[in-house]
């Protein structure tokens, strides 16, 4: 086998690369017929990007292509399975054949599995890893191979998760696959920079999102998988993906919930264990509904409809301030700058005020002395009155100052 020669070169700073505008891009999206992938495809089409869309359901892909072409988008689709390397390589080749290449590759396809790790058959876990982890690896390798030969920089965007930063109970197998995605994404970024490949490798970290993710999951618990808590709209995730396609970023967190749980897990792991066990465990399912058989899931090839939202029992926010803050950092800092200025006016100027008062007092006494020399009789009468009524004199002097 051929072995790569090791060269300790100065790494490329990929975050200084200049990416194309969306209207000038060709974007490849896997898992494009449902949830985040579907919303991203529609949003990218509106912004003028050319699209190469992939999914398992040909009928759904054809309907989506017809819809987007009616809106004057340039789209090509391919029925494929990301767990098969040959399918992923064909997808990359299709983008090259149809559009001469691609500028952004989005590894979005994933499947879900609910249940205690000890109750899930190993074969099921392997099937999940084939899609979530190996599908991401195959897509990343195909993208990097393409970007090696390009002069203009491109973007590789891998879909992570809050569950890939901090494990969720009942979703331990899924979390493990996303931890693996997190790790391989970081490794690919560092190695690509050492090899001077002109690519920005970004990872999206969504919190819980209102998509059919739970509806499509294979369940080894008796209750229906669901997000029974606060969620974010898939539009916020799509917004983050398309921002990363145009701007060199390392990470995009969708939702303060994602950032908070990631930090909690890193800084206070044992506290986070207790928090997850007591508060988060029960938000993974809907107590009022029974789960379907694991065979009736996307993991086992069940078709995906063109649905953006799921039947989750929780509530959905209007958007993500974390995404807005990343896109418009100055606007995000305005309230904090205002608060800081307010604090400065309350505390710091006290020394300035004292200095100013000393100057005023000094000027007053100077003018008083001048007046006494100029009108000695009046000054004598005033001093006499002040000695006679000292309290009144002090009040007058304070008022004059």
Brief overview:
This protein is 50% helix and 13% strand. With 401 residues, the chain is an alpha/beta fold. Helix 5 (134-148) runs parallel beside helix 6 (172-194), helix 10 packs across helix 11 and helix 12 (349-374) packs across helix 13.
Description:
The protein has helices spanning 35-46, 58-70, 85-99, 122-132, 134-148, 172-194, 234-246, 256-267, 269-280, 321-327, 329-347, 349-374, 376-388, 390-400, and strands at 26-29, 50-55, 75-79, 104-107, 113-114, 154-159, 199-206, 218-219, 223-225, 230-231, 251-254, 285-290, 315-316. With 401 residues, the protein is of the alpha/beta class. The chain folds into 2 domains: 14-338, 3-Layer(aba) Sandwich (Rossmann fold), CATH 3.40.50; 352-400. The strands form 4 sheets. A 7-stranded parallel β-sheet has the order 3-2-1-4-6-7-11, with helices on both faces. Helix 10 (321-327) packs across helix 11 and helix 12 crosses helix 13 (376-388). The radius of gyration is 32 Å and the shape is globular.
CATH class type of the largest domain: Alpha Beta
Oligomer: single chain
The CATH architecture of the largest domain would be: 3-Layer(aba) Sandwich
Let me know the largest β-sheet: 7 strands, parallel
Physical arrangement of strands within the biggest beta sheet? 3-2-1-4-6-7-11
Overall structural domain count? 2
Portion in helices = 40-55%
Mean pLDDT: 87
SSE topology string? EHEHEHEEHHEHEEEEHEHHEEHHHHH
Tertiary shape: globular
Class by alpha and beta content: alpha/beta
CATH topology of the largest domain: Rossmann fold
Strand tally: 13
Proportion of β residues?
5-15%
Tally the helices. Answer: 14
Spans of at least 5 consecutive residues with low confidence: none
Radius of gyration: 32 Å
In CATH, the homologous superfamily of the largest domain goes by the name: NAD(P)-binding Rossmann-like Domain
**Gap between N and C termini:** 91 Å
